[in-house]
């Protein structure tokens, strides 16, 4: 008999359905308020004389509008939230808050003092300050009370590894996330992977260094050198960053013991990172370097305008130059300097069992400059138990109410209850719980190119089994969180 080779299959996992927000029967608080108001108006019109006969038609019309705002959906959002977003965006546009411009130094006018700021960043990032210790940069967000350190990492040839090695890396990454839930100090872990323009010089240098000089192989070497030469000018370079964010309020005693203020925060961050860094090699992540303030500024600058990567030497830039020179936020996209951006978010992950390389179509979309951000929100055991109890109670109440109203339970309702029970079982088994949010930022040089790139990304998402949806009315806020490793907390 011929020998048989036994290989370990890739480990697979099925994502739970995204919890439906709401307080009863999947309805949000705003929807319940609108429906209650409409019902109250109908009762007053029908059974009381509170309204004159001539105004009853108007009251009935208002009630219908309230019901429509509560139950209708516009651009994947409840109608009342879409309307509120439109009004908010129009108000910000009227005040000029959707337009950004960096002050220009002219004559004797002094530049504004930044006080360790990052180049007058727009939106939520404006308050962030950068601090340096031993060559590493740390971002402090005073409003959120968080400190973030950024590490550049790489995970070579994951797709080329055998299944056993890939499975080991997946288990290693699970241990990293489990360690992040240990104390509750780590508020968020952001894994950012992006592609930026490259002139091909690094690829050509690597090729010249590693190609063989044996006479027998010269023809093959010349052919390979010609192939890499044709790639120059149209190549993309991939970068990966790990942004670890700690919560000051959750580490008050440790911060005081380490010296208080920013010094204590940095010392606490170093303690958490030391533990996670020991586990990163088992997850297949090789640490390249902790980013200095100048390198952080370079990452931010190339995020706002990816084409600037072709003109930077790679040793960083002045933090005062990190922000965009100008830009404008529109309803469904953002323009900064010479680039257009659109942010999309993952509304649903694959519910069937998929391998660990499920995201490779998003990581390698053909001809698209994009940034993929995965946000992991570690929960302590107490937080998880509280959330599970609340969700379980909500499902039971909704089921009771549907039974009273004569509505039929659907398979989606049963799946939601099963997911909650699975979460509870895993928690009782000693596993930590981590929330997950995925966001994709697509960049292009024109609006037409942006629309084409988004179409390509949507096709890649369909191949990966993801439900990608566009962000509306909050493009600047979403871009700041998703395209830049600033550690800005997001809701997972």
Query: Roughly how much helix do the residues carry, as a percent range?
Result: 40-55%
The whole-number mean of residue pLDDT values reads: 84
In angstroms, what separates the terminal alpha carbons? 54 Å
Structural class, from secondary structure content? alpha+beta
Which parts are unreliable, with pLDDT below 50 for 5 consecutive residues or more? 1-6, 104-115
How many discrete domains?
Answer: 2
Task: Tell me what you see in this structure.
The chain has 492 residues and is of the alpha+beta class. It folds into two domains: 22-100, no CATH class; 113-482, no CATH class. It is built from 14 helices and 17 strands. It has helices at 29-47, 53-71, 79-94, 163-180, 201-210, 218-231, 252-257, 261-279, 293-304, 360-363, 381-405, 411-428, 447-464, 475-482, and strands at residues 12-13, 73-74, 77-78, 99-101, 129-133, 136-141, 146-154, 186-198, 235-247, 286-290, 326-329, 334-336, 339-348, 354-355, 369-379, 433-444, 467-470. The strands form three sheets. Strands 4, 5, 6, 7, 8, 9, 10, 11, 12, 13, 15, 16 and 17 form a 13-stranded antiparallel sheet that branches. A two-stranded antiparallel sheet has the order 1-14. Strands 2-3 form a two-stranded antiparallel ribbon. The relative contact order is 0.15. Mean pLDDT is 84; it is low at 1-6 and 104-115.
């Amino acid at each position: 008999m011929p020998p048989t080779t036994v290989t370990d299959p890739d480990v697979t996992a099925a994502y739970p359905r995204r919890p439906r927000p709401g307080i009863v029967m999947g309805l949000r608080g705003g929807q319940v308020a609108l429906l209650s108001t409409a019902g109250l108006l109908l009762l007053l019109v029908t059974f009381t004389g509170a309204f004159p006969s001539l105004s009853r038609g108007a009251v009935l019309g208002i009630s219908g509008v309230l019901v429509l705002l509560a139950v209708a959906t516009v651009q994947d959002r409840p109608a009342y939230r879409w309307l509120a977003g439109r009004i908010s965006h129009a108000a910000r546009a009227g005040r000029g808050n959707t337009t950004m411009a960096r002050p220009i130094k002219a004559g004797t006018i002094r530049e504004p003092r930044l006080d360790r700021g990052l180049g007058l960043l727009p939106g939520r990032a404006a308050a962030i300050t950068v601090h340096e210790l031993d060559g590493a940069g740390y971002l402090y967000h005073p409003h959120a009370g968080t400190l973030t350190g950024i590490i550049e990492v790489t995970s070579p040839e994951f797709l080329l590894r055998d299944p056993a090695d890939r499975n080991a890396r997946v288990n290693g990454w699970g241990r990293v996330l489990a360690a992040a839930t240990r104390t509750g100090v780590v508020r968020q872990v952001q894994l950012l992977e992006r592609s930026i323009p490259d002139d091909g010089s690094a690829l050509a240098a690597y090729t010249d260094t590693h190609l063989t000089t044996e006479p027998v192989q010269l023809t093959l070497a010349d052919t390979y050198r010609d192939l890499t030469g044709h790639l120059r000018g149209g190549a993309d370079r991939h970068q990966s960053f790990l942004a670890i964010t700690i919560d000051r309020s959750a580490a008050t005693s440790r911060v005081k013991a380490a010296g208080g203020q920013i010094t204590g925060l940095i010392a606490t961050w170093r303690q958490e990172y030391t533990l996670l860094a020991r586990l990163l090699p088992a997850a297949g992540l090789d640490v390249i370097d902790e980013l200095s303030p100048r390198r952080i500024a370079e990452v931010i600058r190339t995020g706002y305008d990816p084409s600037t990567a072709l003109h930077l030497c790679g040793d960083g830039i002045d933090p005062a130059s990190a922000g965009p020179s100008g830009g404008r936020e529109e309803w469904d996209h953002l323009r900064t300097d010479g680039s257009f951006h659109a942010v999309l978010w993952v509304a649903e992950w694959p519910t069937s069992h998929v391998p660990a390389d499920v995201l490779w179509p998003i990581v390698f979309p053909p001809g698209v400059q994009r940034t993929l951000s995965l946000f992991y929100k570690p929960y302590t055991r107490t937080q998880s138990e509280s959330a599970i109890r609340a969700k379980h109670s909500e499902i039971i109440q909704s089921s009771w109410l549907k039974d009273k109203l004569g509505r039929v339970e659907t398979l989606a309702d049963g799946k939601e209850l099963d997911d909650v029970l699975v979460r509870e079982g895993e928690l009782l088994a000693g596993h930590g719980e981590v929330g997950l949010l995925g966001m994709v930022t697509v960049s292009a040089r024109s609006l037409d190119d942006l629309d084409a790139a988004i179409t390509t990304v949507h096709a890649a998402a369909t191949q990966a089994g993801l439900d990608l949806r566009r962000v509306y009315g909050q493009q600047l806020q979403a871009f700041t969180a998703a395209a830049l490793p600033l550690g800005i907390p997001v809701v997972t």
